[in-house]
Every structure is written in C-alpha cells, then in structure tokens.
Amino acid sequence: MRALVVDDATTVRMFHRGILEEAGFVVEEAMNGIEGLERALAGEVPPDLLVVDVNMPRMDGYAFLRAVRVEPALCDVPAMLISTERARMDADRAFAAGANLFLVKPVRPEALARFALFMTGAARECAR
Amino acid sequence: MSGNESRIGTADDPRAAASEPAPTVISNEDFQRFQDFFYRKTGIIFGAAKGYFVDRRLADRFAATGADSLHAYLQHLKYDDLSGQELQHLINSMTVNETYFYREEYQFRCLVASILPEIVHGFPSAGERPIRLWSLPCSTGEEPYSIAIQLLENWRDVDRYDVEIFASDIDTRVLAKARAGLYDDRSVQYLNALVKARYFTRGTEGSWQLRDDLRASVDFAPVNLNDRLDMRRHRGSFDVIFCRNLLIYFDDVSRRQAAEALYDALRPGGFLCLGHSESMSRISSLFTVRKFPDATVYQKPRA
Amino acid sequence: MALLKSRDSAFSSSAVASVPAPLSAGDLLASLHAGATEAERRDAAADLAALPDTACALGAALGEEASPRVREAIVLALVGIGTPEAAAAIGGFLASEDVPLRNAAVEALQQMGASAGAYVEKLLAAPDSDTRIFAVNVIEALRQQAASGWLRRVLARDPDLNVGLAAVEAIVQFGEPADVAVLRGFAARFPNEPFVTFAVNMACRRITAGGIT
User: Fold this and answer.
1) How many domains does chain A divide into?
2) Which of B281, B284, B297 should we substitute to test contact with A (largest number of A Cβ atoms within 10 Å)?
C-alpha cells in the first residue's frame, strides 16, 4: 500500500516516512500541495493514503484536499490532515475541505501508524 | 595549490579518462543532505545510481568555489552567492542541457491527444480563430519545428484549423540558426526515416536542411521573458506555451515573475508546458494542475 | 501537406509597442482597489512595485483583495519593494486566519531579504506560538549570519515545542557542528516526544557529517 506524505519540512517527512514504512507502507513525498497533486496523479493507481500538513507554501493542506476531492481519480482516498495546537480549532475547516481525520503536531508514532492502518482497512486487531 | 591538485575532480583531471570511477567525494549522509537541498530548490531527485554523477559534479563545484566540504559549499551558496550565479552553475551542471528534435516528446503527444482537442472544443464555431502556440526559449529551433512536424504528422484536425507557431529566444544568434533550419545528425537522431525524408533534405556530411515551407511556418522573434515591457506585447495571445528547462535556472523571485508573465501571455484556459523535471510547485500558485494521459501540464483558469 | 499560417507581423516587428504614460500612485491605487477586472488590478499592482512609498497601501489592498491572482501580484510587488515598510506591511498577515494569505506572507518574507530579518526577529517574542513558528520558517530562508544566533535562542528558550521543531528543521538545512549543544539542550527539554528525539538526532547527524573523504 502506498502513502503520500505532503509536508514542507524535511524532518517531518522523514519521521512520517519511517513510521509508515514500518507499518508496511511504500511512501512517496511532496513538499507542498501542488507537488502533492502532481505525485498523487502521476502513478497508474492513486495512493492509498494521504498524510497532509496544513501550512505549506503555494498550496496549503486545505486547498490540496479540496483539489483532491474534485479529482475523479483521487476523491475517495483517505486523508489525514496534520497541524499545530492552535489550528486544532480548525478541525471543522479540515473536515469541510475533505479530511477524514485531523491530528495535532507533533504526531506520536503509534497514533500515526494505527490511524494509517485503520484508514486503509489494514488494521488487524484480533488478539492471538 | 600545485597544478595537479587543483585539477582533481575537474574535466582536466587526467584520471578522468581512467575506467575506474574517481574516489567518492562526499559521505552518504552528505549526499542525503545535498539531495534534500537540491530537491527543495528544483524538485529533482537523484537516485542512488546517480551517486557518481553527483559526486563528480559536486567536486567540480567545490573546486570552483574553494569549498572543502559540503557544509562549506552550502554556506557559500547561502551567504556568499547573492547573485545566484553559483546556484545557476550548480543547476546547470546537474541537469542535461542538450536540444534535439522531439525532446521530451510525451508533451507533443499530449498536445495533439489532449490539449488541442480541449482548446478547439471550446471554440464557438469550427476554425473561428487561429490557434497560437509559443515555444520559448526556442534555442536553435528544434522545439518549434518539432511542434510543427507533430501537428502535420499526428494531429488529425490539422487541416480544419489555422495554427500559428511562434518561437522566441533572448539570444539572437540561436534565432538566426533556427531560421536557417540546418541541423546535424545528433539533432535529428530520434526522428524516424520517414519523417526525415519528408521534412528534410540531406546535405553533405550529416547535415539536414529543413524544408522551406516548414521553416516558413514558424515565426521567430527575440523576446526576454524577464523584461516586463517586452512580455506585455504578448498579453493574452497564446493557447499553448512551451517553456521548458528555462525557469529552473532563474532565482526564486525571477521565477515567480516569469510565471506571472507567462500567465499573462496565455489566453484564459490556455496551457503551459514546463520541462520534464520542473514543477510549478517550486514557482507559483497561479496555475491549475492538469493531468492528461501523456503528461501533466498547467492551465490558466478560464474565468 | 497543410500549410500553417503564421503571419502576425506584430510578433516579429522590432518596433517597441507604445508604452502608455505611467499613472500616478493615486491612480494606480485606485485601479488596484476598484479595477473591474483581475487583469487591471494585477497590472496596477505590478506597476506599484516601482513606487516604494506605496508599500503600506499595497498591504492594505492585500487585505481587501479576494482574487488569489491579484494577491499574488500584490505580494510580488511588496517583495520587489523589499523595504522595512514592505516587510511590515506583509508581516501583518502572519496572524491572519486566511491560510493561503498567511502562507503567502511567509513565502514573501523569505524572498524579501534583509528587511524581513529585522522584522521577524521581533516576532520571535510574539505571544502566539503559530506566529513564532512562521517567524522561524522565514528565518530558515534568510541569508543573514545573525540567523543562527536567533535559532539557537529559540531552541534554548521557546516554551512551545513546535517552534523549536521549526528551528531544528532550519538547522537540518543550514546548521553547523557548533549547533549540536543547543540541539541536545532542546531535546532534553522535551524528553517524551518521539519526534523531538528523531528531529534532533537527524539534525546532529546532518551537521556533523561531512568533509571530503
């Protein structure tokens, strides 16, 4: 399964990449919403998951999600939007833009991994 | 430095001719760091296979700037290279600059398969006005002539509509060469024999002369994309602009201004094609991303 | 073979198109506010870039302009002017609730150079943590040597970990071995945050690796 991480900070992209790869995802990166759209559209099949920062130059996370939700190839891809504490009050805006989930930065590895698996239908919770 | 040491890693290095690659210049961690830097600036990523390629060229740039480490080189770029010239040298050295017929041909496929159909679909009645295409920079003409050939060979509606092809460059010498339409083997190497026979006359010693009627179908004129007044003359004129592998060499602010100028030069709904490894993500938010089967291009909004 | 006509004499003519007489600042500003079309307002903004005294007025217009394309032209004009007044005019939007406008302000300050430095240094003491984050984002792009000192201060003292993390990101790009100590100090302030540990380790590796082998 493929995840697209969209964030302008290298440290964040690397961190999310490590967590998602460990959870079994193949990870692609983009630095802002425009590049995110280009990468998401570039493949033969769309990504299985979008992990998106809010504050990025040229096309922010909300604008990116709105663009994704009108793109026939991408509109149903699960998306989590990530931002800082104060922007937690913007959860309504996130959902209006088409996010399925809103997380506060910095993300904890277990939360990101569990939500990623859950949102892509890959969570396996049965106790042995 | 003695003569030998100063040539290490440069094109003059006698060891460059040896079959073994030169020793690694930078560590893996530094390669990552350089990758990030270059990716942020240009969107270009080098795979691990390009390690040697990057090494050699970085070694050249270190030698040229007197940097003894990647850190020193990045510091130089950040604090000393205020004109951006060294950054230009770096980008130049890391990108391939040759021009030839049908370079990045997937965009020419996109032109006839997707872009032109969409443009003519928006016409109120068939053939109402000429479709205007612009190649900028056109260099020695391979790009605009490739467009002309592509339309004649592969656009089934080429007889239904008038098409005007314009081509510009800041350098009047290359424009003169473009008008002359004389090319070498290397330039036409990706054209098949049929196309070559149809549009060129074979001269002596691997020279190919483009037919007069094709030469006459492209209108060449000097234009400086950075000159606002120059660009103002071409407002709202074009349906499609090819501006490939030029903006990558501009600094951040000039690139943004160039994007504005290109935006202004397009009709509403017009399309812009950048080079293979270029993206508006590093430049400007003015355009809409349009993904077609053959290529991803940019569009000026209609309204 | 179909003939392709291309006979626009205006294109190849070397005569310079007539340039309309320059409008006054007042006229341009009026056009910027009330111009009926986007193109008119964008032109007005582009022409105002040559008049540094209009920086404040450009900032005001930015706040009232709804079209993203006209906003882009106004922002470019302010970047071109590049004075401390222009930095302040655009810096005001770092606190805006309008996300694209806020991000455009960060980008503009990043491209503005020295004037932006003086402006954002003061913002490092802003009460709002998001504003301080944006200030650090701008500093990351600045070409001033003083910038490293500011980043170190943030790492040593800022109470909000996201502000510090923005500084770590800046150091990953351009830091030097001397930054390791203050990075470790920052990590020590937030021992239970996996991302802090990760980012600081990444920064330390990046800035200490290197030299020609």
Assistant:
1) 1
2) B281
Four-point Cα dihedral C43, C51, C49, C59, nearest 10: -90
Sheet holding A101-104, edge to edge: A26-30, A2-6, A49-53, A79-83, A101-104
Q: CB B2: neighbour CB atoms within 10 A?
A: 6
Tell me the chain C residues in contact with residue A54 when contact means C-beta distances shorter than 8 Å: 99
| Interval A109-127: pLDDT, tens | 999 999 999 999 988 888 7
Domain range for C53: 26-130
Q: Which domain holds residue A117?
A: 2-127
- CA distance linking residue B134 with residue B147, whole number of Å: 10
Least reliable range by pLDDT among A54-63, B61-70, B209-218, C204-213:
C204-213
Q: How many domains does chain C have?
A: 2
Are residues C184 and A26 in contact, defined by beta-carbon separation less than 8 angstroms?
A: no
What is chain B's Cα-based Rg? 22
Pairing, β B288-291 against β B266-273: unpaired
Cite the active site residues of B: 57, 169
Q: Within a domain: residue C176?
A: yes
CB of C138 within 8 Å of a chain B CB? The answer is no
**Cβ-nearest to C211 among B69, B166, B252:** B69
Q: What is the mean pLDDT of residues B194-209?
A: 93
pLDDT over threshold 90, residue B227: no
Integer distance in angstroms from the first to the last C-alpha of chain B?
Answer: 62
Q: State pLDDT tens for residues B95-124.
A: 877 899 999 999 999 999 999 999 999 877
